[in-house]
Amino acid sequence: MKFSYYPGCTLKTKAKELDRYARLSAEALGFTLEELPEWQCCGGTYPMAKDEIATKLSSVRALASARDAGQDLVTLCSACHNVIKQVNSDMQNDENIALKANNYLQLEEEYHGETRVLHYLEVLRDVVGFDEIAKKVTNPLKGRKIGAYYGCLLLRPGKVMQMDNPENPAILEDFIRAIGATPVKYAMRNECCGGYVTLEDPEISRKKSGAVLHNAKDSGVEMLATACPLCLYNLNQNPDGYDIPVVYFTELLAEALGLKEGGN
Amino acid sequence: MQRIGVFICHCGTNIAATVDVKAVAEALKHEPGVVFSTDYPYMCSEAGQNIVKDAIRDYHLSGVVICSCSPRMHEATFRKAAAVAGLNPYMVEIANIREQCSWIHKDIPQATEKAITLGKAAIAKVHLNAPLYAGESPVVKRALVIGGGIAGIQTALDIADAGFPVDIVETKPTIGGKMTQLDKTFPTLDCAACILTPKMVDCAQNENIKIYSYSEVTDVKGFVGNFTVTIKRKARYVDETKCTGCGICTEKCPMKKVPNEFNLGMNNRSAVYIPFAQAVPKVATIDPEHCNMLKKGKCGLCAKVCTAGAIDYKQKDEFIEEQYGAIVVATGYNPINLDKFDEFAYSQSKDVITSLEFERLTNAAGPTSGTLLRPSDGKHPHTIVFVQCVGSRDTSGCGKEYCSKICCMYTAKHAMLTREKYPDTDVYVFYIDVRTPGKSFDEFYRRAVEQYGVHYIKGMVGKIVPQADGTLAVQASDLLDNKQLHINADLVVLAAAIEPDKSARPLATMLTASMDTNDFFTEAHPKLRPVESPTAGVFLSGTCQGPKDIPETVSQAGAAASKVIGLLCKDKLTCNPCVAHSDEWMCNGCSACEKVCPYGAITYEDKEFRMPDRTTAIRRVAIVNEAVCQGCGACTVACPSGAMDLKGFSNSQIMAEVDAICK
Q: Is the dihedral of CA B452, B457, B461, B464 positive or negative?
């Protein structure tokens, strides 16, 4: 099975492992990620403004080219996924935005939200199936107490993202169980890490990510798994010394599937 | 050819503002058979009805068409008027030009054209109408109340008081419902048990009331005045007639680790149990899920200690069939499941509880004998946070869109009682709005704030994080102060939304009673017939119809009872003459109609026929029992040979209407 794939800028620079292990695991699980031939930065947080049109165009372009290829569009980075999925919803439901975006782009065929956007986790859950993954695991991560860290962008707004219940999600926990580890549920797993505020006021993101790490530690978490490069950055940069490693979920998947070089 | 009169109602401006009524009257005047056509501002008024009556006499009308509101509203009114003027009431047809025309259209020419079309269809039908005569059916003078909470109890007591026998069917081992689990009741703070248990005892002692506890309704057949109901009496493995309720079996039972549902699982009970001290009937029940004797065939201790010899491990579920004239639904409510609201950490901490659990924690018969202690460590909580609207007024899709109505008042009660009993406790209440309409309700809430110093904060709690030291970090917003609040609480109480009991949906299907999207039973009219279901003979009592507090439930229960009494007082009911009829010559005896009839009104008979060739043949044909048939029409659709027809709605009448519309 083939999917159009939108990696996003961070996955080409700081978050190369998120990308690499996702592609490796995909092949082992029987699906292929075909990187879109031309993609641009999703625009980070800018496209979330209702009156922004220009910054939404990169997403629309990616969505339209997935449509032209007749494929679903798969994303990995929580922020890219959030932006692309929200823009797609706007193109479906907001006549004003759809009209202006199409006028700007002058595509051969107008785009009105036809493409289905899937997060890599949704492919694992809904296309491959966690039961199937569990069968293909050669190196189960037994005995590891892993906390899922959703952050805020992956699940919210719930009505648009429609991945899982934003207040009581289970998708990452089910994933952790599928690769043989023990998921640890803790209250702060869907709270914000501080996000981009870290650029302007690192103290705020230190407080926010600190609260997440503190609660995770309290709850017996030994390792955190995330899908978001920015979350990983903020949690890893936290200077308060919580001593909880934070890794991408794709890295754990590759390890469990026996694809990680030098893996145990 | 019929002589037809047509009467167009303005309904004030309800119809006349969108439909050109004069044009309709003029257009319909030229339809075949129409000898009189007029319009009037309020056709349903005394004067309007007189126009109809006079026209019937003056023009010797044989059929009447009223173009007005829905027949559900005034069909009976106009049929009565026609009967007074000497016309068979079933010669009256209503064309609904209000609900199905003026109210849903804006464009006057379009609405007028549609009103004319609807009028023409009704005229086409009246041409084929024939006089019909209503029969009568007897009324079984016994009522069934489904659900034995305060609503069902009150309804049953009132019906019994009027002298009619009434049966209560309750799924739990005891009647009493949710109210038995409450501590005090707002706004007067009298103890729930003190005011409820006398009523429970009254039920048990009233010779007109029969209680089927630990039982369920599994099937309902029949119709108003003549319901046949199957009741499943679940095996309780204890002979109700022998058990004295001494409780020795519950003491000796070795299996003591069963979560006690009466205390919402906050303590344990034995496998053989009596839910609580004042249970009615006060007899033991064995829980087959946990009894060692029933599961493994080993133990038998309760049978040994029972001096009455009431224990019977071989008891089986028993099905009984009873006849009733009226059925009252009183199935009540439950708090919603909080799985989707994990931001409040209900699944993560024992010290996050629901309001109903709080009632048990403050009740003298509860797991802590009425002392407010934290479920996790048994310590006194010093800071308590109450969160209102958990799942109520929720548009996110996780909860309910409606207001659960009782939470503002019981939360004020909890907050006030906590401050009264434990003045060293800090009490916070987070609310979206405080809604306290009701006699002495707002005064009650003001007392909680002003006299008892409860901190009411407008805003919602966003997150609750259980801490390593056992406290709960509550993060919330104060919308009036525009501030983020962080409170370290010892106990958090969630006012969970209430929803109808899960048994309501299958019961509604059995009763063919309608429900709304939230599974609350719908009333026949939201303002004018609030305790009747649209299904004749089915009445509604308590929270099965919508969220209600105790005073409101009791008034509605009494109202439902009075409607039941009104019905049971009658010896006979007038039947609907619009029933099915089978043409014996066309019927081929295939049984298709019998299979679809929900009322069991169709039987078969072998009948002798003189054939055209002068021989005699015995043929199997369908016979409709007109007293049982409700005129639903299912058989007319199922009949492959076109033998089955519905009086007043015959196939030819429906086709004539369709032809008139499509012309």
A: negative
